[in-house]
Amino acid sequence: MDVTYTFLDYRFFAMSFPTLTKFNANLINTFYRKYSSSNQRKLLFYWGSVGSKINTHGTLLETSTSPRLLNLVKLVKTRIEIDGIEDVRVTHIASGWAHSLIAFKLKPHENKEIAKVFSFGLNSSGQLGHGTTNDYNFNDGFVEGLPSNYTVHSLNCGRLHSFILFSKENGKNDLFGFGCTMYGQLGFGESKQDFFYDENPKLVCFSKPRRVNSIEENIVQVACGFDHTILLTENSNLYSMGWGADGQLGLGNNETSDRSVPSLIRKFHNSHIRKIVSTTDSTLALLDNGHLWSWGNSELKNLSFKILEPTKVSVEHKVVDVGIGGSFSAYVTDIGDVYTCGYGALGLGDGTIESLKPIRVPDLSNIKRIYCGPDYMAAISASGELFTWGSGGPSGRLGLGHTNNQFVPMKVTFPQDVIVERVACGTNHAIALCTER
To answer: Gene3D superfamilies of this UniProt entry (predicted)?
Structure first.
């Protein structure tokens, strides 16, 4: 029996037809416990839109204003010829402007695990890694040309570019990029500048993964903005590449030109950096000591200080997690409080949509992780509940069942006993990696 397929099919049927009591939650949970070898099976939910309602209609990723459970085995079986798949386990997720990446581990019958990366969304610059480009239509499938015998370390998406960081048995990591590199954001040493004087300028992009060879240090983290990329190495050095006009590369005064290879951000010499985040044209860096640094575009007051080089943020709390959107920033303290600043729906009510200083979000507590899309935010509590707020938009990207703006955090509704572990916030869609109690 294909246990995973049967369980997910029944679970999806029960969610779609809740009034049919013979497929109630108790029956599903009993079936699951009987046949599953683990009570911590990964579940993947999707909401919002990666295209239009027309080009996603009838697909597994059809536009939705509320979380929809994705049938992982069906997603895999319809796109890859592997017999006897017994388990599909999601390990990593990432979302960009209108595309996402999902890393799987497949367990065929009596065979060793196989690692695959699935991508879906728009593919105008090859950002899905399918070896093709397509301007306007929804696409989905597996990323082609990936190295074998590697383990996925992380996934990252920008506006039109993507990265997969692989770890090897020797402890070293290899970074592969694909998609648009018009501004040099893939770090291959190529950009639009190479064709500036050509009579027929062309789109500079790579539709299949290619290894980033222009940096010798071991890369451990990647953060993608719209058109720039920040790399963190094992030695706690930061490198930047791509679009630099707004200071998002953090290279200092008179250094706002684009970079097509990783360029060292010297401000952090001998610092110990825990996390880097970016979404649009600005970046936050969280150090091991809880200090917070930021740089990039601050025209909408999400940073409120100099932008051309990293500048320390004055906060009165120990910061444990950070997020940054298009016009706002957010951080989580060591006691689980959330603070936001900038412009927009900050979670402070419709009477406070602008603040130069971080203000505590009163309706949130016991939070462990914060995420930001360009126009909205998401927070996961220690108990695995998800809260969202911000600009709703026609896609329903907040996952709240409507398209309205949300000025205070609201809990996203999932099936009973679902625990949210991670969220990837795209521009108009989101995906959540969950487990079941």
So the answer is: Regulator of chromosome condensation 1/beta-lactamase-inhibitor protein II
